[in-house]
Amino acid sequence: MKYAWWPGCVARGATPELYMSTVAVLDKLGIEYEEMHDFSCTGAGVLQERNQKLGDTLNVRNFAIAEKLGLPIMTICSTCQGVMAQAHQRVLSNAGYLKEINQVLAEEGLEYRGTTVIKHLLWILVEELGVEGLKKHFTRDLSCLSVAPFYGCYLIRPSNALGLDKVPIRETSLEKVIEATGARVIDFAGKKACCGFPILLINQENSLKMVASHTGTAKDGGADAMVTPCPLCHLNLDGYQSKAAKKNRPDGHIDLPIIHLPQLVGLAMGIEPRMLGFQKHIVSAKDLLETYRAKAGAIAR
Amino acid sequence: MFEHDVLIIGAGLAGMRAAVEAVNRGANAAVITKVHPVRSHSNAAQGGINAALTDRGDDWTDHALETVRGSDYLADQDAVEVMCSEAGAALIELEHMGVVFSRDEHGKLGTRRFGGQKAARTFFVGAITGQAILHVLYEQLIKANVRVYEEWFVTSLIVEDGVCRGAVTLDIRTGELHTIRAKAVINCAGGAGRVYEPSTNALICTGDGYALAYRAGAPLMDMEMVQYHPTTLASNGVLISEAARGEGGYLLNSKGDRFMLRYAPEYKELASRDVVSRSEQTEINEGRGIDGTVLLDVRHLGRKVVEEKLGYLQEVAHDFMGIDLAEQPIPVRPGMHYMMGGIKTDINGATSVPGLYAAGEVANVSVHGGNRLGANSLLDTVVFGRRSALAAIEYGKSAGAGSRNEDLLASEKKRIQALLDRPKGLRSASVRRELAETMHSHVAVFRDQQGMERAAAKVKELKSAYGKVAVDDKGKVFNTDLIFALELRNVIDTAEAICASALTRKESRGAHYRVDMKKRDDANWLKHILVRQSAADGDPKIDTAPVTITRWQPVERKY
Amino acid sequence: MQATVRIRRFNPEQPANNGKFQEFKLDVPDSTTVLDALIKVREDVDGTLGVRCSCRASICGSCGMRVNGQAKLACKTKIADVSRHGEPITVEPMGNMPVVKDLITDMKVFWDKLRQVEPYLQPEGPAPKGEYIASDESMNHLVGVMNCIMCGACVSDCTVLAVDKNFIAPAALAKAYRFVADPRDSRTSQRLGVLNESGGVWDCVRCMYCVEVCPKGVAPMERIMKMRDLAMEAGYNNTPGARHTESFASSVKSDGLLNETKLAIDSTGIFNIPGQLAQAPVAVRALLRGKLPPLFGHKIKARKQIKRVFEKVEGQE
Question: B92 to chain C nearest CA, in Å?
Fold first, then answer.
């Protein structure tokens, strides 16, 4: 299967390791893709709060481009996925609205007929490859690691726009991938909550409390790392973790590496950590990688 | 001990309307309610509120006549005149408070048509009219900063030398009993749906207000008049509003016939509720139903109308039956819905006990007589809620001081402790179910002497069994088990009053339809039936009172 | 069918089992709701179970609770939908509120916040003789908000309230919107001014929990977003939140993509030196790790097309 890959703004900006690790993993998994250079930012929900129709028009433009290519869209960001899914639901449930948007796009030589499928890499892994299919690509057993899942709001809510009712596996997809690698899943209450990123620049105190609460709870629960399919969550949980710990933890420390979904998958596939960009993390993944190197043995075939 | 000028029992529409009026007029008024105000059952009124607005060519006397006709001429016409002539002002006042009534194309209040009425004079908010008004009155309660005893239960009214002086109450949260003294008490405690099973009513509708007044010696009037609503869900008794028919919905039998064309050629599905319910039950009894139901069909109205005007109905149909009303007819059957009967009051809410007032469903002014028209109940609550507040304040000015003794508090404490101390016994839920199912079998749409006697005997039996009821929960904090046991006594007393009244009325009128006496008998029974609990033996004592006729002489009802 | 309900118990008078789950196995009809099951437990098995409920028809708002970890209205939740293969159903009291007993919470926080937004109509001048004239469309729009039954589900699961007790939270903010958007209310601007402050509309994280858990489709978050927009229109645009939104839009408009550096500078305020320094340690570390976003941002090739789309759609407003 081939996809129109939309990395999103952040993977091409502040989280280059997500971009790197995605490329490394996709190639080895045999997932074909064409990177979309002419897509626009999805609006991340921020643009939508100012002008929903504007946000929807930009997204429908993206859908139309993929439709023209005859490719489903692959995202690697919970926010991109969620915002696109919401826009898609709105235009598909209201023919008049889609028509209005198409009128704007007509002048740009574009028209959307409503056929584009939009899927996050996480869903592609568990739905298209399947857990067993994915395992076939794994060469290292990660049972030495304990990993906490962190979804990112936009991949969970609103559930109907994301098709969670129709494809229930999506609700536990991250746990499924962690289990597939052999790692232990560290369950905790905040795994589907907000990471705090959207208000980082608006109410930093609250944002940091959220970071401290999630990473701290996972760490206390025994996690060696937290995995997320959302680079925005990563930015906050990784970049602001030490500051959050200083303000909200008695000992001032959490030190929980926040890893991207393709990094976890890459480790299980035996891809060299440097190729997955671990050196670019702010919370050091050194201990994690040491455990990995020392204990993650080869899977016997 | 707490003290107020006016103590209002219940925070539904009548209670909150009364409270807002009293506080805005400077009275020291408080509301006591066993649930938070917005949980009150007025929420469930879906379809709308009636008012004849003169500026759109309607006339309140038309509304009054149709109300009187709907009542099968049992309503007191002076009371109906008050309600219908004040309706316009009451409605506009609600709009000014902030109710988001539906509008017409000119931005003025829009209407829909309701049963038993020729004119479209029902004003509404989608299919959540009761909720929309209840929440706005709660807003007004906040604005007026009214003291609310929230999640407090009234166990008994204080009556000294025949005068009502407050209530003994239980703070559900702490389990402590308190005396609340007041110069006047307004009983707005709502209906008694739990006397029947199934019922459209909420679980909180346990007849508390009727029983409190009944035990305090105030007569209840026309308690045999129990409304069965024509469209309730077969599965759990939940209401499907008359708005469905008001917007143009059809009722169909198993053969697909619009059977109401036969029973009420002129008003069809919008005949009065007693008539429609009887017609449905006849179809079902004669083998033209579908598993004890008939079908309500709104498909021809189109999805837009269904979703915009009947949104809540659509939600209920989906949640409980998995039905999309725009695509599929829904099975419905008559279900217990409303008590026309209640505490006898005058047009100012005064009961026969000085200091005790009543308004809303628990009261009988009487404006509904033998059968209430849809959308007249909300109107009743706000008009008479307000009037009872005015009268209660006025009365309070000369009420004089009562005693400050705590005798009743002490005896109530003893009674409740005895209940808590009983180690084992009957479960109140099963006693209630047995009673309520009996009432539904024998004092429902069709009645006869034998059935009603059987029901009365069952009620009597369970009344004596009440002494054996025990609770699992022996604690103080939020002991709902105890509350249910206290409510059960109210359910039983209300059932007793209904049965005694029903056995008295030897004719068919309104909702009281006897298959063994099918004719209305104005010569002998154009009168109210009063029932009071005898202080001597605790049994019901019957009396009658004349019906007030002002300008509409009784004639045969035809829809 | 068989249903297994695991109820988290709490009784302040008998604290031994507080917080523990008690399991009940019930034989129930297929159409049973979670509330039906709880009532069955209470009536037939264990009368001490504390649960608020009344209407059974999702209109009174009494039975808000967490089912399988998420706030729901028990009477609107079918057993079959939350236990597809007969797995045990977890029932707990709502979050963000103290527990009184079993599934009963103290909703004081909910009612207090409601009072905070002056939740009553405040029209200008004396009332007209008849009704206020208002369009059916505007009233219908408000019906969507009046649908709120104050069950507390959104407040229970609000992720901001979990860290900040000062947040007005979804239900009261939706209630505030009901007046902000009411053409009869005269205090729109003052209301927006208050809601623009700390604890108000800008503190929402857009996690969509409230939209997801609301059993009545009130979509509080969408109302909050609308009020952000209205606040900016009303001239309240010198907050970090307002600047953030503006900066985001202008970045996408000019480059087709998001410029994170500019966003940070604009959001904290161009003259807000402490605010920018607050980002600095992170920025320095990010730079060392080779992950600071490019200072001038990236741009997509079709940015002229994006700009045209922007102008066209904004022009339609």
Answer: 6
